[in-house]
């Protein structure tokens, strides 16, 4: 039995058709606009290099998302390794005669004296982000697209192939899980 190619690639239109979606997908996962842009560019580049490997069983966007997912995983592997931490540069001064950067592992710690409220908000933000990362993949994607990226419900349903009622069930379940996680990891510390 031979595989039939049901989808075709059109690299000339990738930027026009997919860059916004891929960027939103990436920025929701890495929380850094510049890194998200880089990851999308790497995705397109890898897609061009791997055109021969496209079997046509998935849509063009699905194929590009799978490449982007691997790029995101590689990004996190790099920043979580000791070598990766040494290689990541942090901007110290944006402009002027002192313009330059620090290697993240060697960068000085902030000298700011934060108010208690700022510290609490930062800690709560970390707990919330950790809880979002613990959601099942589909819940996380739907929740982030709807709440953080503010996609329209109809667009999310069309992109993920789900019904409107399924969308709201997923969002409700994600919120319930987030509430439980935050209560456990923040309020009951």
Give an account of the 3D structure.
This protein has about 190 residues and is mainly alpha-helical. It folds into 2 domains: about 1-110, Rna Polymerase Sigma Factor, Chain: A (Orthogonal Bundle); about 110-185, Winged helix-like DNA-binding domain superfamily/Winged helix DNA-binding domain (Arc Repressor Mutant, subunit A, Orthogonal Bundle), CATH 1.10.10.10. The chain has 8 helices and 2 strands, in the order ααααββαααα. Strands 1-2 form a two-stranded antiparallel sheet. Helix 1 packs across helix 2 (about 35-50) and helix 6 (about 135-150) packs across helix 8 (about 165-185). The longest helix is centred in the C-terminal third of the chain and has 24 residues, at about 165-185. It is globular and about 55 Å long. It starts with 13 loop residues before the first helix and ends with a helix. Keywords: DNA-binding, Sigma factor, Transcription, Transcription regulation. It comes from Namhaeicola litoreus. Belongs to the sigma-70 factor family. ECF subfamily.
Alpha carbon gyration radius: 20 Å
User: What is the rounded distance between the termini?
Assistant: 58 Å
**Secondary-structure content class:** mainly alpha
CATH architecture assignment name of the largest domain: Orthogonal Bundle
Residues in helix, %: 55-70%
Unreliable runs: none
Give me the CATH fold name of the largest domain.
Answer: Rna Polymerase Sigma Factor, Chain: A
Determine the oligomeric state from the structure.
single chain
User: If strands are numbered along the chain, what order do they take across the biggest sheet?
Assistant: 1-2
**Helix-strand pattern:** HHHHEEHHHH
* Total beta strand runs: 2
Q: What is the number of independent domains?
A: 2
H/I helix tally: 8
| Major β-sheet annotation | 2 strands, antiparallel
- Strand percentage lies at under 5%
Query: What is the CATH level 1 assignment of the largest domain?
Result: Mainly Alpha
């Amino acid at each position: 039995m031979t595989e039939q190619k049901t989808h075709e690639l059109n690299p000339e239109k990738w930027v026009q058709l997919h860059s916004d979606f891929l960027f939103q997908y990436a920025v929701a996962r890495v929380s850094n606009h510049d890194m998200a842009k880089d990851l999308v560019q790497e995705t397109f580049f890898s897609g061009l290099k791997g055109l021969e490997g496209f079997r046509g069983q998935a849509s063009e966007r699905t194929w590009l998302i799978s490449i982007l997912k691997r790029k995101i995983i590689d990004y996190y592997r790099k920043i979580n390794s000791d070598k990766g931490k040494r290689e990541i540069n942090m901007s110290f001064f944006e402009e002027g005669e002192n313009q330059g950067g620090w290697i993240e592992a060697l960068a000085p710690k902030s000298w700011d004296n934060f108010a208690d409220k700022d510290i609490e908000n930062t800690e709560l933000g970390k707990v919330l982000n950790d809880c979002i990362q613990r959601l099942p993949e589909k819940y996380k994607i739907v929740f982030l697209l709807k709440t953080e990226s503010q996609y329209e419900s109809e667009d999310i349903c069309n992109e993920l192939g789900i019904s409107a009622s399924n969308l709201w069930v997923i969002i409700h379940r994600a919120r319930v899980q987030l509430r439980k996680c935050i209560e456990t990891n923040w309020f009951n510390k």
